Amino acid sequence: MLKLPIYLDHNSTTPMDPRVLEAMIPYFTENFGNAASRNHSFGWHAEEAVDYAREQIAQLIGADPKEIIFTSGATEGNNLGIKGVYEMYASKGNHIITCTTEHKAVLDTCKHLEKLGAEVTYLEVQPDGLIDLKALEAAMRPTTILVAIMYANNEIGVIQPVKEISAIAKKHGALYFSDAVQAVGKIPVDVIADGIDIMSFTAHKMYGPKGVGALYVRRKNPRVKVTAQIDGGGHERGMRSGTLNVPGIVGFGKAAEIARLDMAGDTERISKLRDKLENALKVIDETYVNGNPAHRLPHVSNISFKYVEGEGLMMGFNKDIALSSGSACTSASLEPSYVLKALGLGDDLAHSSLRFGLGRYTTEEQIDFTINAVTDTVLKLREMSPLWEMFKEGIDIDAIQWAHH
Amino acid sequence: MAYSDKVIDHYSNPKNVGTLDKGSNTVGTGLVGAPECGDVMRLQIQVDNATGIITDAKFKTFGCGSAIASSSLATEWLKGKSVDEAVKIDNMDLVEELNLPPVKIHCSVLAEDAIKAAINDYRSKNGLEQLVFEERIH
Questions:
Q1: Is the preceding omega at residue A142 within 30 degrees of 0, hence cis?
Q2: In CATH, what number does B5-125 get?
Q3: Which of A80, A49, A37, A101 shows the shortest CA–CA distance to A214?
Q4: Which of A54, A299, B38, B116 has its CA 20 to 30 A from that of A268?
Q5: pLDDT given for residue A330 in this prediction
Q6: A93 — contact with chain B (CB < 8 Å)?
């Protein structure tokens, strides 16, 4: 029996895998020690558990366990990675290159640094969501200390050419930072092969607990350091003070291990469902898939249904299906998704978009239900849409002088 | 954000979706909003020229649930009113009836604007001067 509601918003967060929960439970009660307590068995047990998790996580991304710095999540990781490099490498330069489709945790961090004297280049993306490597090359300066380009985008799922980006950064003596929160655990990420120097990611996007993340900080070729943004007891090799969230870290480790072992199977199954969903919805007239389809996460599909508004569309089925829209009708700004706008999509298409994020527990039955519900609602709302009527009559909607409000 | 039952009801069973003959001089059409802003409303009134009574009203709306509900409710209220009474429909009455939250007040403003635009269109087709409404910020 199909159980409702259906969760298709896995880019926002994922449910915790029961295996992860099971691994965590003893660390709340029995093994509650502080991993920094060096002089008794409670502390030793906790430290051992943290070390084990560090190995599990390092293995997922091809890193050395010593290169994993635990954080509270990817927002903190992005702040620490970017601000930490800016402070640590101030003597080498003050220029940072990032791109317009980054997460706010990266963009706002860069804006903050601009106030402190950083020069930041925000690269535009191409209509398919990928950055232009020639533009990156051209933006490099002698003072460039950091290139911060995400691994995969949270709204459209496009995967940036990470190897090429890191090669360009390296050639010009800059470090490469990647916000890989959407990629790690979903697709193979290897910090050595990818040439990544610093990388943030988080547990709750890979079926682990919320409130725990990691920053990968390379230890050799080159040895990278970031200036701590939280001062205190000097935990995590002095880069991130604060008592470690032991149960969270244990869960993160378990989630990383499961992701590594199950990735190939999950990807195959989920991408088939994603393709089924996408192909069925593309049959609807005037429907556009956003982002480069060949360089994309296997579980994401972002689709614009022209002439219907995203929030209105979701209302047709949001008691049964949970997903996100690029329409920002609920936000005070009324601005649609800046990511979709950065692709050069008109605001109308941005307002008309839905993001489907499939996951480990998504079933074919759920996808079939979603296809029907979305199709029915799109057709119903188009019957109600003055824009659809104009389009059908051959009126050029762009030529109308709309009163902007 | 949770919608009120009334918004959900109008969204699920919208009243008076449709199109009137915009060329007719007994029909007034108001088209307001912009696709870039995420909402466009087209509201039409059919007026009995002899009595000045609105005998029918239709809408089509591109927008969120609150925008659809606001225009659906507006058409319900318009039917049976005289044009002079219809001018007095205030967006805050729609807000109250539909329990719209502050972030959705602009949907009701748009509906009020659509009513006024439809009335002015009707007036201009029938040689009447345009009513001037206060500019409002929304």
A1: no
A2: 3.90.1010.10
A3: A80
A4: A54
A5: 47
A6: no
Find, in chain A, the residue whose alpha carbon is nearest to that of B63: A309
- The strand pairing partners of A301, in sequence order, are A356
Coil, helix or strand for A309?
Answer: coil
**Which residue of A325, A329, A331 is the best one to mutate when testing the B interface, meaning the one whose CB has the most B CBs within 10 A?**
A329
- Provide the CB-side half-sphere exposure for A165 (13 A, CA): 25
Whole-angstrom Cα distance, residue A200 to residue A180? 6
Largest CA distance in chain B: 46
Q: How far apart are CA A68 and CA A52, in angstroms?
A: 12
CATH code for the part of the protein at A18-258: 3.40.640.10
DSSP H helical segments within A1-158, as ranges?
18-24, 41-61, 74-88, 104-115, 133-139
Q: Name the stretches of chain B with pLDDT < 70.
A: 1, 135-138
Q: Is the pLDDT of residue A386 over 60?
A: yes
User: Are B63 and A329 within 8 A, CB to CB?
Assistant: yes
Q: How far is B53 from chain A (nearest CA, A)?
A: 25
- Give the pLDDT of residue B97: 95
HSE-CB of A251 using CA atoms within 13 angstroms: 29
- In CATH, what class is A6-11+263-392? alpha beta
pTM: 0.93
> What are B45's strand-pairing partners?
B28, B57
Phi and psi torsions of B27, nearest 5°: -115, 135
Supply the pLDDT for residue B54. 97
Spell out the domain ranges in chain A.
Answer: 6-11+263-392, 18-258
ipTM of the complex as predicted? 0.93
How many degrees, rounded to 5, is the angle at CA A256 between CA A130 and CA A58? 85
What does the pLDDT average to over A197-216? 98
